[in-house]
Amino acid sequence: MKILLIVFNFFLLSVSADQLWITDFALALEESKDNDKYLLVEFSGSDWCPPCIRLNNEVFKTDVWKKWADENVISVLIDFPKSGQSDEDKRKNELVAKNLNITHFPTIVILNKNGKEMFRTGYKSGGPEKFISHLENLALKSSFSF
Description:
- The chain is of the alpha+beta class.
- It has a single domain (19-141), classed as Glutaredoxin (3-Layer(aba) Sandwich).
- It has six helices and four strands.
- It has a four-stranded mixed beta sheet, with helices on both faces.
- Strand 3 and strand 4 form a beta hairpin.
- It is globular and about 35 Å long.
- Mean pLDDT is 91; it is low at 4-17.
């Protein structure tokens, strides 16, 4: 029972409070395999990057997005805030960004359950419906669907 509580607490600490984004890449990859879903990985500077902030406010914080994401992807936030991040989290995030060759923010990377990149994109204005349509069109061009 103690182990179950420890694992549950670890999971809670690895999920962003208001959006249910997983912040631990390895954990998210396991969730992707367990649920047979693609990973949607957002690389963000949540407290300093204007397009990142707009993407979060206009898309990721909406009910339309939350419903779509819950049904279709495992959402992962790899954040690089100016403050409030532990050295360990910063190191882990830098390693994920380096492995995926991230050069700017925001970058959205879609990976399959084996960690293979399917495509990447960035901020698109127009709200959640337009962003979801954009993702679905890129998926079709990459020969898959969510």
